[in-house]
């Protein structure tokens, strides 16, 4: 998967914005101002940090040990770095993005959740 495919998928989600708050090398995707994905733009292959349920994070790292690693510069319990070198299927990566988005969305305040629900209505 390339960075454009990842970017297009992330920004297609409701309430998502993209920013470069850490400089030109890290693209950050947020839902209602909360980070759910960070993509390294200067790394080859492209990698993305995604939030993950702690138990599932460990399982994924064990099953895909060369492709899913503890989150680089992140809380290793809750974040994974996923290497996008073509070995993982796009549908699987999209599911990991969905999981991250949904975890962050679930942690929004009730007010933020209502604002997100009200978007595009």
TrEMBL record:
Q: Name one GO molecular function term.
A: DNA binding
Q: Which UniProt keywords apply?
A: DNA-binding
A Pfam family of this chain: YjbR
Tell me which InterPro entries the record gives: YjbR, YjbR-like_sf, YjbR/MT2646/Rv2570-like
Q: Which residues form a coiled coil?
A: none
Know the name of this protein?
Predicted DNA-binding protein, MmcQ/YjbR family
Question: In which organism is this protein found?
Answer: Salegentibacter salegens
